[in-house]
TrEMBL record:
Name of this protein: DUF3551 domain-containing protein
Signal peptide: 1-27
Keywords of the record: Signal
InterPro entries: DUF3551
Classification via Pfam families: DUF3551
Length: 84
């Protein structure tokens, strides 16, 4: 009985240390989104290229568009301001 409790304690400690050491996945805004067909706004933004988005949209009554988060981020940043 004591060995079973000790084994459970060791497994609990290993599991807790594994969970504490893991980091969440980094969020990444892909440049193309599927929009329309009930997706809402901005849609399913998980496509790296326009061709990949169009292939996924084929036959589904949806369309591909630029991810607004990516587009407005580029607009907000603008040209870099280099000062020497």
């Amino acid at each position: 009985m004591r060995n079973a409790k000790l084994a459970m304690l060791v497994l609990l400690a290993v599991g807790a240390s594994t969970m504490a050491g893991s980091t969440p996945a980094a969020a990444y805004d892909y440049p193309y989104c599927i929009q329309g067909g009930g997706w809402g706004f901005p849609g399913d933004c998980s496509y790296r290229s326009y061709a990949q988005c169009m292939a996924s949209a084929s036959g589904r009554r949806v369309y591909c568009n630029i991810n607004p988060r990516v587009a407005f981020d580029r607009q907000r940043r603008g040209r870099p301001n280099y000062r020497y």
